[in-house]
Design a protein that fits this description.
- By secondary structure, this protein is of the alpha/beta class.
- About 45% of the residues lie in helices and about 10% in strands.
- It has a single domain, classed as NAD(P)-binding Rossmann-like Domain (Rossmann fold), CATH 3.40.50.
- The N and C termini lie far apart (about 65 Å).
- The relative contact order is 0.15.
- The structure holds NADP nicotinamide-adenine-dinucleotide phosphate.
Length: about 325
């Protein structure tokens, strides 16, 4: 009886300490008259981000792959915030033709884009999977899709300046200490779920670094972030757990996450901070954690690597000269 009580007490104290030091967006800024796009807003951090931006009065476009699931989120956001300018549009970031269709529709229907939150992400399949474009699925979903999307919307983001691009990365980018630019899609080396995820999240930061450099002086800022450890749907997805051992590992991992991690609302705070806070107006090319500037890994700060990744990504998504607006 004594031991379980002590363990429960320590769990509660550890959780309180973690949540106490968690960053919170303190800005009360209104976004009336502004338009925001949030990818992967049908769940987790993206959903809470979209809700907060809607509460501030923005027109919010939820860019999601599952329309039924996302429409339920739209209905929930409208009923919670009273903001009726919240809509869903189809976007599968792992499919380059879906990204092109989505961008085309947005450019036709939206006169302005002030905030683009590249949030959609997967932790990666246990076994390597290749998309119809010939890209490894984790890289396609987390990096290539957002790289192409951002480029295709760049003209409108520049016209709408001051505007902000926010790339949701992860502290997991530290788990990769070398990047093979000649084999980003794991064709020549063995595939690992964590390696693919870590690499894709490193790419999010390098992409932000290079884009920030390209957009300097344009009024469009680009920053990346780690949201914290969040008890979202992220670690419960079926694709992560193929073997019974993994299922068991994830089951217990999830319990720990729910006990110690942030809820989705707290997990969205750094994204929201970067999207709205007055104090980060003009700040660009930085990496944030807990609503504060943080230091990314030395690889993620390598500007020549960021440049090289940009060139390879541009070729891999077949960005046409007519699609270049930086
Ligand atoms: N949770 C954490 O502890 C944590 C830590 C560090 C970084 N992150 C990052 O935070 C971001 C959000 O994660 P989360 O925790 O909120 O996870 P989540 O609850 O699993 O939500 C992920 C969102 O991305 C969407 N998505 C996945 N693949 C997509 C695709 N191909 N096209 C369009 N949308 C797609 C999902 O759509 P469906 O609902 O249709 O599946 C869902 O809306 C990710 O980029 C992740 O890498 C999370």
């Amino acid at each position: 009886m004594f031991l379980p009580t002590v363990v429960a007490f320590l769990v509660v104290v550890a959780r309180m300490l973690y949540l106490r030091r968690a960053g919170r967006c303190t800005s009360t800024r209104s976004l009336a008259g502004m338009t925001a796009i949030v990818t992967g807003a049908s769940a987790g951090i993206g959903m809470e981000t979209a809700k907060d931006l809607a509460r501030r009065g923005a027109r919010v476009i939820l860019a999601c792959r599952n329309l039924t699931k996302a429409q339920a989120v739209v209905d929930h956001i409208i009923s919670e915030t009273g903001n009726k300018k919240v809509v869903v549009r189809l976007l599968d970031t792992s499919d380059l033709s879906s990204v092109r269709r989505f961008a085309k529709e947005i450019l036709q229907t939206e006169d302005a884009i002030h905030i683009l939150v590249n949030n959609a992400g997967i932790a990666g399949k246990q076994v390597r999977e290749v998309t119809g474009d010939g890209l490894e699925l984790t890289m396609a979903t987390n990096h290539y899709g957002h790289f192409l999307l951002t480029n295709l919307l760049l003209k409108r983001l520049k016209e709408s300046a001051p505007s902000r691009i926010i790339n949701v990365s992860s502290v997991a980018h530290f788990f990769t200490w070398k990047i093979n630019l000649k084999d980003l899609n794991f064709e020549k080396r063995s595939y690992g779920t964590l390696e693919a995820y870590a690499q894709s999240k490193l790419c999010n930061i390098l992409f932000s670094l290079e884009l920030a450099d390209k957009l300097r002086g344009s009024g469009v800022t680009v920053n990346s972030l780690h949201p914290g450890t969040v008890g979202s749907e992220f670690f419960t997805r079926d694709e992560l757990a193929v073997t019974w051992f993994r299922k068991l590992f994830l089951f217990f991992g999830n319990i720990v996450l729910r006990l110690f991690g942030k809820d989705n609302k707290l997990g969205a705070q750094t994204t929201i901070h970067l999207a709205v806070a007055e104090e980060v107006e003009g700040v660009t090319g930085k990496y944030f954690d807990e609503c504060k500037e943080a230091t990314a890994s030395w690889l993620a700060r390598d500007s020549s690597l960021a440049k090289a990744l940009w060139e390879i990504s541009e070729a891999d998504v077949q960005l046409a000269p007519s699609e270049i607006f930086y």
